[in-house]
Write a structure and sequence with these properties.
Helix 1 runs antiparallel to helix 2 (37-47). The radius of gyration is 16 Å and the shape is extended. It is mainly α and 65 residues long. The chain has a domain at 12-48. It is built from 2 helices and 2 strands.
Length: 65
């Protein structure tokens, strides 16, 4: 059975916050002497994730790109 894939769409500001949070979590794990492999994988995925432009519909009927 295949694993279900989830897609997360974030803007550049949210991406930056996400990366800073993951690096902070990694630093905490290093201080505790714990493994950071999972966090390293997430950081790698966030950094190398493709950028996709989406259309967002507004309530007023105009579209923003």
């Amino acid at each position: 059975m295949r694993e279900k894939k989830n897609h997360l769409y974030v803007d550049s500001n949210e991406r930056s916050i996400l990366l800073h949070s993951l690096v902070e979590l990694k630093n905490q794990l290093i201080q505790q002497g714990r493994y950071t492999d999972c966090v390293d994988e997430l950081i790698f995925k966030v950094i190398h994730a493709p950028i996709k432009k989406l259309r967002v519909g507004m309530a007023g009927g105009s579209d923003v790109r």
